[in-house]
Predict the 3D structure of the following.
Amino acid sequence: MTTSTRGTTRVPAVLVLEDGRIFRGRAYGAVGETFGEAVFSTGMTGYQETLTDPSYDRQIVVATAPQIGNTGWNDEDDESGRIWVSGYVVRDPARVPSNWRAKRSLDDELVAQNVVGISGIDTRALTRHLRESGSMRAGIFSGEAVRSETELLARVQAQPHMKGASLYEEVATKEAYVVPAVGEKRFTVAAIDLGIKGMTPHRMAERGIEVHVLPATATVEDVYAVNPDGVFFSNGPGDPATADGPVALMTAVLERRTPLFGICFGNQILGRALGFGTYKLKYGHRGINQPVQDRTTGKVEVTAHNHGFAVDAPLDRVSETKFGRAEVSHVCLNDNVVEGLQLLDQPAFSVQYHPEAAAGPHDAAYLFDRFTSLMNTVLMEGQRA
């Protein structure tokens, strides 16, 4: 919940963590109060894409880069129709934006969308604290919302935890829509929106895919009504343990042996559909500089991440599932977290990170080509049969 009025950097603000740690600074963006899970993102660029990523729903994002806002805000780089973060924490906001595409300042956009933030705090100390203690509930208070420390801490501690939170339906589209193929149409894909970023269907469209983006509540009948060559499950916020509906839908798709690709939340959904568990990471992976190894090729990719949960699957062996053999295809080199899954006996795979690279490096763009190759192989086999 957020209440706000016009912001000013002269207004005192306070960030309160659920363990009692307090940081004092100045209001940034809207003035008021907001609550969410405090997490940090290590990207040095791409703050506009980060703020508009639906996977950040109900999270207060801490920017580890010391200066934020230099390139202002433009009308092209949004990943959805609004800012989704609950609050924004920066150390040194740019005084004057400078970029040929900028239409307004980041501060102005935060005010316009009623996003409460704080600036002028030691974000390095805050990040180190979150790494040691883990992501936790937090609140930002400025202006008339500031009360005694005891009262503010009690309000933060009364907020719901991220574990057990079901959020994907509140960020997903309510109505289906189509992103047409760029150039000649080669395939049709049904994309289940669990918090999809705008660049994702665009990356598929660039490869000749007509993308039918469907609501998170789509049924198996809805999916196959578009006569898909493949099915895609998107990223999204919240605890995958609450996503029984998407798991049931993916199970139905796997039973039909339709080519399947999932990213981020979609990777966790595939893990659950295959019988693996999921768990909450201590502080998660967020940013555009995470090293991941593709175990099928041995190559290391620098990748964009935004996830606080992960799949609990064995790294040292092939697993037997009700859909055949499955293995971990990608792993994070920082902490050995599962970053990808693939079935060996039917056309389905997923990754935990963001190959659409908005923002971020393009090392993982080949995964969209892998998906098109998978659909093409199945299509050719069907024609031969």
